[in-house]
Design goal:
With 694 residues, the chain is low in regular secondary structure. The chain contains three helices and twelve strands; from the N terminus they run H-H-H-E-E-E-E-E-E-E-E-E-E-E-E. Helix content is 4%, strand content 5%.
């Protein structure tokens, strides 16, 4: 009978086809048995009640207990109230099947597809539900006592009022699971998950509307959990991980319990009521606290944010009345429109703080912060495009403050510290800057004329010019710098040319030549410096691309790492110059003086030369000087005269040898350009100059 069943039904529980190739002898024996059984009146029977075609015979209440239904196609089948106790459903397709109140005790559902299946009130005690393709829709009220769900895919499944006594859930995937009223204690749960008051608590859990008031959730991992409408009043969430949770516009009737040391990184708390919450030491990095209520309830204290990390948090419009913000981490916080009435901010580090439209007067502020025109004023404050017109900022500490585009018209900044502040595009019309410290101030695009400036400072082309001014990348072409004090100023990448007047002082290593500011990392692209005296000039890292340096005196110049791509250096004096690592790609260098020049690691590709005088102290690898020509890979040797040259070992890969005159060449080059060869002392190749060659 078993042999016959094997021929009749589908694949076995290991996935192998039951339509076996039995072999000729096996088939004959089987047919013989059937004939004998029919002859004596015995029909070949199937196990009582088991279907021959499960897909067609499925109906509510069927009794298929103990049946072999492995790999059966039961997609969408209605098996409500069916008896499937101890049935073999391994690998069966039950997608969308209705199994409400079905009896599945000890059933084997390993690897079965239960996607979207309805299993409300189903009895699955002791069932095997392992596999990664379960995803049933609803297990509300189901009995899973002793069931094996290890590694099961249960994302988004409803497990309300489910019996999990002794159930094995290790390694199961539970994000988005809805629970509540769970009975019994599971034998195991996935890492970071726990069962609290009938709820499965873990990363990504869906606790929408859950009744969690007064529970101990200390150390719980609720990263990415859905907590909208969940009661969290008086909960202990000390040390809990709530990164990315959504509590937008949540209201808690009673005081929210302890969230001390909890992780609320990136949490959405917009508009939430967190009045009097204990958030001491909580990590609120990047949290959205827009319009959140953190202030007092009646006469009680506001939220406790002592030592909370608010780096990058958005508190725009938040109510912080009476809140304690004492702590270390409140950088890059947005407090625009926040209510700070009575807020305790002493000791808080408020660097890079955005504000404006602040309501109320704080009980205390950290030294040296102050409140002016609704803005928090202090070191590193973000005051971009702020409206501080006519503000009293006398003696204010605005070191490193961001004041780009700020309206400071008529503001009193006498004696203020603006060291390192960014004042680009700020309006300073009529502003009083007497005695202000402007060292390292970045500017440019300044609008209006200040009523007064500190000694040694002036306004030129929208830039604040003075000692230690930050003028990096400033455009000073055609500027009048007569008498300007630029001692210690940062002039890196400054564009110049056509400068008028003589500065009273320049930074070390800088000079003014032919209307150009010459110094380390100067921006001198296409500068006209023909015949310029740049002897010993410090041009390290300077941008000299396409510069016109014909006959320039660059003897002893520091050109380490400078970019001279395409520069015209004909007849330039580079004796003793330091060109280590310089970019000379495509430079034009005929008749230049390279005596003792250091060219180690310089890029000489496509350099045009000839008539070079002097012997360089060093050249890049694979390069040499022959007959006044720089010889190396990709050298530009068009029309070069190499007659009688010694090219032994020369690397001429990719070199331009068009119209080269040769003959009598000595030695064998290490490499030549494609399509070129050396024959009888002549360079033979496309467009070779071989007039009268022998």
């Amino acid at each position: 009978m078993e042999l016959l069943r094997a021929v009749t039904f589908g694949p076995d529980r290991r996935g192998r086809s039951r339509y076996r190739v039995l072999g000729a002898l096996g088939v004959l024996v089987t047919l013989g048995l059937v004939v004998v059984m029919l002859a004596i009146g015995v029909a070949p029977a199937v196990a009582s009640g088991c279907p021959t075609n499960p897909a067609l015979e499925a109906e509510p209440g069927v009794d298929w207990s103990g049946c072999n239904l492995a790999l059966a196609n039961l997609e969408g089948a209605d098996l409500e109230g069916a008896n499937l106790e101890s049935a073999d459903l391994e690998g069966a397709d039950l997608e969308g099947a209705r199994l409400v109140r079905a009896r599945l005790l000890d059933a084997d559902l390993e690897g079965a597809n239960l996607t979207g299946a309805k299993l409300r009130a189903a009895d699955l005690e002791g069932a095997n539900l392992t596999g990664d393709n379960l995803s049933p829709d609803d297990l509300t009220g189901a009995n899973l006592a002793g069931a094996n769900l290890a590694g099961a895919e249960l994302r988004g499944v409803r497990l309300e009022d489910t019996d999990l006594e002794d159930a094995k859930l290790s390694g199961a995937h539970l994000p988005g699971v809805e629970s509540g009223g769970i009975v019994g204690a599971p034998a195991s749960l996935p890492e970071h998950w726990t069962l609290v008051h009938g709820y499965l608590v873990g990363p990504g859990t869906n606790l929408t509307g859950a009744h969690l008031d007064g529970l101990d959730l200390e150390g719980a991992d609720l990263e990415g959990a859905e907590l909208r409408g969940a009661g969290l009043d008086d909960d202990n969430l000390t040390g809990a991980d709530l990164a990315g949770v959504d509590l937008e516009w949540e209201y808690f009737e009673g005081p929210l319990g302890s969230l001390g040391d909890s992780n609320l990184t990136g949490a959405d708390l917009e508009g939430a009521s967190l009045n009097s919450a204990d958030l001491e030491g909580a990590n609120l990095t990047g949290a959205d606290l827009h319009d959140t209520h953190l202030g007092t309830i009646s006469e009680g204290p506001g939220a406790n944010l002592r030592d909370a990390n608010l780096t990058g948090a958005d508190l725009e419009g938040a109510g912080l009345t009476g809140t304690d913000l004492y702590g270390k981490y409140a950088e890059r916080v947005n407090l625009e429109g926040a209510d700070l009435e009575g807020a305790k901010l002493s000791g808080a580090q408020l660097g890079e703080l955005a504000s404006g439209g602040i309501v109320g007067i704080p009980a205390s502020l950290p030294e040296p912060w102050t409140l002016a025109e609704g803005y928090l004023i202090g070191p590193g404050a973000w005051l971009e495009h702020s409206d501080l017109e006519g503000a009293d900022l006398e003696g204010a500490d605005l070191e490193d403050a961001e004041l780009e585009g700020a309206k400071l018209e008529g503001a009193d900044l006498e004696g203020a510290s603006l060291t390192g502040a960014d004042l680009q595009d700020a309006t300073l019309q009529g502003a009083n800057l007497t005695g202000a410290d402007l060292a390292y101030v970045a500017s440019g695009g300044i609008v209006g004329v200040p009523a007064s400036l500190p000694e040694h400072w002036t306004l030129v082309k929208g830039y604040l010019i003075g000692p230690h001014a930050s003028l990096e990348r400033a455009d000073l072409e055609g500027a009048n710098l007569n008498g300007a004090d630029l001692e210690g100023a940062d002039l890196r990448y400054v564009a110049s040319g056509g400068i008028v007047g003589v500065p009273a002082s320049l930074p070390e290593h800088w000079t003014l030549v032919k209307g150009y500011l010459i110094g380390p990392y100067a921006s001198l692209e296409r500068a006209d410096l023909e015949d310029a005296n740049l002897n010993g000039a410090d041009l390290e890292g300077a941008d000299l691309r396409g510069a016109h340096l014909v006959s320039a005196d660059l003897a002893g110049a520091e050109l380490y790492g400078a970019d001279l791509s395409g520069a015209e250096l004909e007849d330039a004096d580079l004796a003793d110059a330091e060109l280590h690592g310089a970019e000379l790609h495509g430079a034009y260098l005929p008749y230049g003086n390279l005596e003792r020049a250091s060219l180690e690691r310089a890029d000489l590709a496509y350099v045009a030369s000839g008539g070079i005088v002097g012997v360089p102290a060093s050249l890049p690898e694979h390069w040499t000087l022959v007959k006044g020509y720089l010889i190396g890979p990709h050298a530009d040797l068009e029309r070069a005269d190499l007659e009688g040259a010694n090219l032994n070992g020369a690397d001429l890969e990719g070199a331009d040898l068009r119209y080269v005159a040769s003959g009598g060449i000595v030695g064998v080059p290490a490499s030549l350009p494609e399509h070129w060869t050396l024959v009888k002392g002549y360079l033979i190749g496309p467009y070779a100059s071989l007039e009268r060659a022998d």
